[in-house]
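Hi R.,

Here are the chain sequences for the assembly we discussed:
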Amino acid sequence: MRLLALRIHQFRRFQEAAYVFDPRFNVLVGPNEAGKSTVRHAILTAFFVNPATTAKRVAGWRPWGSESLGAIALEFEVDGRRFELRKDFEHRRAQLRDLDQGRTWEGTRAQERVLQALGLPTEALYRATAMVEQAEIATLRVGSADIGARLSRVVQAGPGDAEADAVLRRLEREITDLERGLDRPVKNPGLIRRLQEEVERLQGQQAELQRRIARLDVQRDELKRLRDEEEAAARELRDREALLRANQDFMTLQAQLDPLRERERALAERIGAIEGGYARLQRLGRDLETLQSRGVPDDAAMARLHAAAGALQNQRHEVQRRQEEVQAARAAADALGAAPSAGRGVGIMLPGAGLLLLAGAAAAAAGAIRGFTLPLAILAAGLLAGGAALLVAARRRRRLVELGREREAAVARLEEMERGLQAARDALSEQEEALRAALAATGSATLEEAARRHAELRRLIQEQAAERSLVEAHLGGRKLEELQEELGRVRADVAGREAVLLRPEVAAKRLTPLQVQQLEHEVKDLTQRVHALRARREHLEREAAEGAPDYEGLMAVEEQLAERREALEAARHRAHVWRAARDGLQMARQQVLIPARRLVEERAGEYLSLLTLGVYDKVRVEEPPLRVWVWVPRAGAWLEPAEPSLSRGTADQVYLAVRLALVEVLAEGSRPPLLLDDPFGSFDQDRLRAAMSLLRRVSESYQVLLFTCRQEYEPFADRIISVADAPPQLPGPFWQQPPPAH
Amino acid sequence: MISLLHTADVHLGMGFPGLGAHGREQREQLRRTFARIVELALQERVDLLLIAGDLFDSHRQSEATLAFVREQFLRLREGRIRVALLAGNHDPLGEGSVWSRARFEATCDNVTLFGAQPQALVLRDLDLTVVGQSVGPDGPQPLRGWPQERTTRFAVGLAHGSAYREGVVEEGTIHPADVRRLGLDYLALGDWHSAQAVTGPPTPAWYAGAPEFLAMDQEAGQVLLVKIPQPGQAQVRPVRVGRRSYRRVEVDVTGLDPESVRAAVLAAAGPDVVLDVVLTGTAPPLRLPEVRELEEALQEACFRARVRNHATVWLDEETLEAFPERTLVGRYIRLMRERAAAAPPQERPVLEEALQVGVTMLLGAEEL
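And here is the predicted structure of the full complex:
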């Protein structure tokens, strides 16, 4: 960078000022208080101060008597292109214009461009390197941290450290944007983390959908299985139920068959009985006819015969009885006739017997009371016996009387009886005759025969009646034909049922009752099973109806997932590539960097050799902290440039050489103008000449602005600018194009 | 004369992971293309629509899709067009298959789904025998045990499987010699997604190819109209029905600036194009193609685009002279080349790309 012109408006001591510079060696000369420091300050302000700053010091730049802040315009040239920088502190504006291409930058962008062109990004660094204040040559501590920080960041030509820095920052930024949040949770994760989270989220959705679909697939399979199972179970149930019904029908048939058979048997028996009865009735009828044809007493006749026989028998009995009575009466009468007759005295015997008995009793009682004595006892006994005998005799007499009377009665009776007997005998004879006649009428010889024949008749009649009754009973009010017809039907029923039961297919299905019972249990179990299957199937169908498999949803998620994975892979790849680029760039930068320290040492050594005419030519720079050593041949050692090791003048030479070397190295190809505020106060003439010679040489690469109040520098200058002169009033308003540089 | 429309590999319900958010849209397009096929069949008044397998991409189909297919079959039924249909290796017959759920033949009496064993369908009114065999649980068994005697004037067949390719060993392939031996007037094949003939007259066998874009590197989008005026004289005409097409563009960036590369790529772009771009060749550091910007531009211009950058940085001595080693760019280029040369093969593309990225960034950094 080479300054071409400076215009100052209302800045510190200047209302208006303008300076035009030579691209090489400028000496700005003026007495103290002429404004030299103001000009330096203005240049520094143009380089480093942001007009938008609210720093209080800016207010101090207002010239005395001025109400407003000023402005500074600095025209400079970089690599053949001209630029104009304007900083208006009143309006807080900064503007940089490319006078050749017409581009414009404002504000901080303008400032960045200026610093980029300057090559030294801070005022401190500038002051520590390109700007040498009076008696501060050795003051490298000012900005030493900046110097140290930049010593390892130097590149020769091409995209320099600034560009590398910018690219590295960009790469870091891009890598950070990609990788932020990978190692720990952050509020705003980078792209890779976001993509990872998206992938995880989509994987979760995919898994959930897959689970749901799998569940639905399982449900569907389960449903199909249930349907098949239900169908099979229902089929089996139908078969079993059919078998059961068939067997129940068989059992019904069988159950019907037995009573039918019984009924058939009964009917057959009944009909057989009826027919048998009819047969017997026929036979009986024939027998009756036969019997009756031979003559047989009927009941009446028989009754008469029996009555007659009975009467006859009675009569015989009567006769017999009478005979016996007669005999008995005769005997009795005979007996009565033999009995003695009774005497007199019956009337006295009885009372006398009584008195004897009483006396005997009284004696016995006295004996009992007073005790028996023998005479008393014999008396008592004798009285009693006498009484008793007397009693007996009385009784006997009475009886004999009675007997006599009886004998008379008996004889009367006997005669009566004999008469009766005879009557009875006569009656008997009549009856016997009647009987014989009756018997002859019935054709029987004897009553027994008649009875026999009558009994036969009765038997036959009874039998017939019984038979008829039996037949009637069997008929039960119906006709034989009806019964036979019914039998036919029953037999047909039986035959039909038997035919059914005897069919081969029935035989194949026929089960025993125990098996039927088991089959009933089976059917019951199967029915429950079918119901359970149906309920489960209906439940699953309802569930399935609520949500069909979302295949489309799953596919969409999988597509998104594939896209996110691809993006994630691309982001990871990008991060990988950028890391490789960053690492490569960092390595390249390190490799390209000429270690600044070494460069400083080389350059400083060159400059020192020029300054000291070859006496000293080796400089060593150490940092941190920044320290300088110089090889002192006579001492054979590295010594710090300070008294007493080296003179102040030599020390200043060393530091001048180091500062000039630092400017070259730290500006990294940019060539900021050197502002020197008469730093050679301690130099003698030889040293001064050597210094000027060096500055002339340096000015081929770096513009030099040497501010001094002395005139001995003027012979070395390409332009001498008198600061003491009234600042030239350049025509036109401040923002006018300044006069072209020469 | 017999008029046929031959298609296969519709792959309804297919997923498109490579299309990302456009997958759903393309899945919808498969349906629309199938409807378009039905329209074409009605329009051409063909006698028979042959679907040689893989109508469905899998058994996992929604009821809506099955209803849609049924609706299409009924449209054909109204137009008195029969359908001869195979199950393919993506939708084979078997328990739990989409066919057992859909039961098309129960509602569409114009549809015949061939079983897993060779089956002959005789259409007396057309004097045509159609022989076909679906893929069953055991996989493709093409042309094995097929009947060779014919009782009608015309005879065509349907099969699904891979044709014999020299040097490729596969089970169950369809050998051209077997095709000729069958003596069919036409054999409609399915399985391969690009249309091509396996045998020529008088026993032509063709893959119709997929009627709609399914995947990269596959030329799809058509069906075959087949007219057989006389036995052994089948005439095959491809008809485009698909909406989206696949295009592969290979651009040699050598000697081209990034703008020319971009223009060449965009010239092949289109709203219904699935574009597969491969950049090859070499470019100097200042002319490296800007792949990301290209991808972004293509996403707007195409249905879907993929850009693969196989171009490398041109680093001859002259180029390197422009970037001396002492400069940062020069040192960076040389360093990355050294690293790439020393790196394992799988790491080299990363380092090459890092080289390009670093150089582009360094040279693109603004200067005052």
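The first helix of chain B runs from residue 23 to 44. Residues 344 and 351 of chain B are 10 Å apart (CA to CA).

Let me know if anything looks off.

Best,
T.
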